[in-house]
Design a protein that fits this description.
The chain is mainly alpha-helical and about 100 residues long. The chain contains five helices and two strands; from the N terminus they run ααααββα.
Length: about 100
Amino acid sequence: METLVAVDALSRFGYALSDPIRSRILVELSSGPGYPAELSDLLGVSRQRMSNHLACLRGCGLVVMVPEGRRARYELADKRLAHALEDLLSVVIAPDPDHLMPEDD
């Protein structure tokens, strides 16, 4: 059963990272909490789109929302995620030029 839980966690993490905006959100939150409006402005996406991405990251279990009066602060669900993201960013990959990923729309 533990293997299934681990595979599910990796699948959720992979799904979250499969979108460049969600990846950027996670990188931003790895340096500290953020607010949707500020993240939206920083990443140049609409507030509705930011809301959708944050909901997805919450559903994946990677971020949590902390209510602050009328505002909501978002942060990584586990501080160790910041270290994991740092490790992933330091990995050197060797993509196969014959099998490149399609461009984002």
